[in-house]
Amino acid sequence: DVKVTQSSRYLVKRTGEKVFLECVQDMDHENMFWYRQDPGLGLRLIYFSYDVKMKEKGDIPEGYSVSREKKERFSLILESASTNQTSMYLCASSHEYTGELFFGEGSRLTVL
Amino acid sequence: GENVEQHPSTLSVQEGDSAVIKCTYSDSASNYFPWYKQELGKRPQLIIDIRSNVGEKKDQRIAVTLNKTAKHFSLHITETQPEDSAVYFCAARNYGGSQGNLIFGKGTKLSVKP
């Protein structure tokens, strides 16, 4: 069964803290994505990666960075968390050619 | 870049009725249009998709139609059941090789009343 696993379901952090969100997929997918989900705004793409050590900005990359050192792992980093980054973060992966996104369970981040 | 508009934002129907959700897109080069369903507290999952060389696709009670000239596509759910209650997202992308990302609509919250 296809699996995308996000390391933390719920996190509470303070303003200014560095935050790491980890995502691992076991499907040998080339593509990995980080989305942010907010009520009424849908799913917005933060960053994506089509290969190891490769990253590209999505629609809302400000305040975020990513790391992909291994094919199965894609990390989202908030260098200095702010309250407006309180949100649900969804990781996803897809095969290079099929296009279907497989999502993780999500990480709900609260920044106080 | 691509922009996807989705309507309505909320939809309430009686069990057994049909539900229709509509999306429009802006980039005429987009050629892949999936629909994702997200039940409360769960991850989004693909329920049906259509590519631009097809005008309609059906899978049991759900169907998707595509009008490339008008740049809109719709999700049709017939004989709705309470378990159809969820948020539905449409998306579009230019499926050129491995490039091109999915652009999502803002979602439609469907409530099916027993």
Core attributes:
heterodimer; A: 112 residues; mainly beta; seven-stranded mixed β-sheet; four-stranded antiparallel β-sheet; B: 114 residues; six-stranded mixed β-sheet; five-stranded antiparallel β-sheet; 11 strands; 54% strand; globular
Report on the architecture of this protein.
The complex is a heterodimer of chains A (112) and B (114). With 112 residues, chain A is mainly β. Helices cover 0% and strands 53% of the residues of chain A. Chain A has no helices and 11 strands. Chain A has strands at residues 4-6, 10-13, 19-25, 31-38, 42-49, 56-57, 65-70, 73-78, 87-94, 102-103, 107-111. In chain A, the strands form 2 sheets. In chain A, strands 2, 4, 5, 6, 9, 10 and 11 form a 7-stranded mixed sheet that branches. A 4-stranded antiparallel sheet of chain A has the order 1-3-8-7, with no helix packed on it. The termini of chain A are far apart. The mean pLDDT of chain A is 93. Chain B is mainly β and 114 residues long. Chain B contains no helices and 11 strands. In chain B, a hairpin with a 4-residue loop joins β7 and β8. The mean pLDDT of chain B is 92. The chains are: A mainly beta (112), B mainly beta (114). The interface between A and B is medium-sized, with 22 and 23 residues.
Calculate the terminal CA-CA distance of chain B, rounded to whole Å. Answer: 41 Å
Largest sheet of chain B: 6 strands, mixed
Largest sheet of chain A: 7 strands, mixed
Globally, the shape of chain A reads globular
Oligomeric state of shown chains? heterodimer
- Overall structural class of chain A, as computed from helix and strand content, comes to mainly beta
Name the largest protein-protein interface in this structure.
Answer: A-B, 22 and 23 residues
Helix segment tally of chain A: 0
Shape type of chain B: globular
Content of β-strand of chain A:
over 45%
